[in-house]
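Researcher: I'd like a structural prediction for the single chain below. Treat it as a standalone chain; there are no partners to consider.
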Amino acid sequence: MKYSIFTKQALFSTLAIGMSQLAYVDVSNAQTNTNSTKTILDGSWRLSSMEYIDQSGRTTPWCAITYGALIYKNNYMYTTVNCANDLNKSFTYSGPFTIQGQTVFHHAQKYSHINLKKVHKRNFKFKDRNHLILSGALGDGFVVVRWVRK
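Model: Treating it as a single chain, here is the predicted structure.
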């Protein structure tokens, strides 16, 4: 069995450094334009689940043991997903982001794999103020990623 070099605690401790100044944004009144330095997405998010949907409609978990974090602050984003049982599915990328309606565009400038160097288009919706769902194309299929506000 392969093990990741990150433990869950180490991953979130590392991501939490310097993030204590994040402001909570009230989703009901937040702006979504690209000129705003605060957006409805701002904050620190913990990965809840990540599912891949193939062309036939079959849904499978991204991997069996997944940890991850997503941070939005000052029109910049950072995400990491650590797949403990399959390191080939682990990834990290960061860069500026923009919002148009209910779509967020992650403009990856730093990344763990060259194939991540692109603009990642993700539709977003909130289950409630503390639960974010991102979805969009991934390879030949579709991905649905659920996040919980930290």
